[in-house]
Amino acid sequence: MKILVIGAGIAGCALGLALSKAGIACKLVDLKPAPTTAGGAFLTLAPNGIKALRSLGLESMLEGAGGFEQSGLEFFNANGRKIAAIKGENDLSVYGACGVVMRRARLQEVLEAAALKAEIPIEYGRQVKSVSETGDGVKVAFDDGSSEQADIVIGADGIWSQVRRATWPQAPNPLYTGIVDCGGWAKVDLPDTTRQQMHFGNRAFFGYTVKDKTAYWFTNIPEAIAPERGELEKIAPEVWLTKVRELNREAVEPVRHILAMADSAIGAWPLYNMPPLPTWHTRRVCLIGDAAHAVSPSTGQGASLAVEDAAVLAMCLRDNAEPQRAFERYLDVRKARAESIMEFGRQIGDRKVASTMGSWFRDLTLVFFLRMGRSATKEQYSYQIDWNANMAQEHLQ
Ligand SMILES: Cc1cc2nc3c(=O)[nH]c(=O)nc-3n(C[C@H](O)[C@H](O)[C@H](O)COP(=O)(O)OP(=O)(O)OC[C@H]3O[C@@H](n4cnc5c(N)ncnc54)[C@H](O)[C@@H]3O)c2cc1C
Q: Where are its TM segments located (predicted)?
């Protein structure tokens, strides 16, 4: 069976590796011109994501990728008063893994290197334009005029998935949240943090974590008007930093120290919520990762869910001869979990925007926000990939 995976991002590479573990061959294509060496700022992998990556045998490669463990969160109001904390000290014993902060490009490099080592073919510089199911397969057309036939196609092509749009032209598009995320890192004179530090400022939300005198910071800027796609990339990083400093002019320390020490922002990204899709598959086409269910970055779960999807879909394809049965089982196992995290992210995002509307309202919403956060993280982090599980559809009946 010829399996073509569109997108060699986190979900696509993880799927290649998971299929290889299940003894199934596939090919990946991606529009990026070459293997990843840079790009993006940093991300947090949640304990469930670390466990999913571990199940793909990536633990030792990840250790050499410059990530560091960080569990738990502390929240501060605009006056710098600590208002709450989510403890993370016991994450390792409770969930079997700690969260890890790492540069996005390093994670991507690890995944692509592992795919290379496993001899999974990745073709770069190939942008998918259209996907159409024929009687006995799927035809994929590329922007250079070439086309390819496969038995099944997996859309791992991110939040603006072309596979999704080509397969379900009526599917809803991502909705702009009113938030632009901006971030980077800075050399600082601060001790290591043990928990991520979250500041609900009067004009913007600011988060950071410090390791070995480097602060990894991000800020959520309320921006009512949705930017055009690609518009923010044209704005120089220094311009963003000036804007972020201005928004945090009255922020407490060490927020101002971190921003004073930053050379520039790494970039800025508009944040979207993806409305739930009625389904993620047809007979021969299936979506994973952000293409199926982009969750808000505020959840810290997007990358982790992408790896979980990959492992589960590979097991479903391993245990079901018919792709459609495999896709149905994958949907049964994954959709409710992803959608509850999407909803969680939507609620956090609303509260971040609301937090700029005044301290009384902000502090009130925080109480709800934190209560919700504590029970949600428990459910999210507990998830376990079990490669011995039988994913055959009839096994359910
Ligand atoms: C600002 C920001 C911060 C975030 N922080 C976190 C965090 O801390 N923790 C976390 O878990 N998640 C975070 N996320 C979410 C996380 O980045 C995504 O959930 C994750 O990248 C999804 O992986 P993916 O492989 O599905 O999609 P992507 O990583 O977007 O990969 C899609 C791939 O498909 C390729 N592609 C796209 N279109 C085509 C096409 N037509 N043809 C061929 N190839 C194509 C792209 O080049 C890309 O390589 C954040 C997101 C943002 C925007």
A: none
| Amino acid at position 14, single letter | A
CA atoms in the 13 A half-sphere facing the CB of 233: 5
What does the pLDDT read at residue 393? 76
Are the C-beta atoms of 290 and 158 separated by less than 8 Å?
yes
Name the closest-CA residue to atom 21, ligand 1.
303
Q: Which residues contact 260 (CB under 8 A, 6 or more apart)?
A: 245
pLDDT reported for residue 363: 67
Does the C-beta of 218 come closer than 6 Å to ligand 1? no
Q: What ligand 1 atom has the least distance to the C-alpha of 126?
A: 43
Q: Which range of residues forms the domain containing residue 56?
A: 3-71+98-174+275-357
Ligand 1 atom at shortest distance from the alpha carbon of 7: 34
For the stretch 202-227, pLDDT in tens is: 888 899 999 999 999 999 888 888 88
Task: Check if the beta carbon of residue 42 is closer than 8 Å to that of residue 216.
Answer: yes
The stretches in the chain having pLDDT less than 70 are 265, 349-369, 395-397
pLDDT value at residue 385: 96
Please give the distance, rounded to the nearest whole angstrom, from the Cα atom of residue 290 to the centre of ligand 1: 6
Of 257, 248, 242, give the one whose Cα is nearest residue 210.
Answer: 257
Q: CATH number for the domain including 59? A: 3.50.50.60
| Residue 294 alpha carbon, nearest atom of ligand 1 | 19
Probe target for ligand 1 pocket from 15, 30, 70, with the most ligand atoms within 8 Å of CB = 30
Q: Residue 229: which CATH number?
A: 3.30.9.30
For the chain, the domain total comes to: 2
Residue 197 lies in a domain: yes
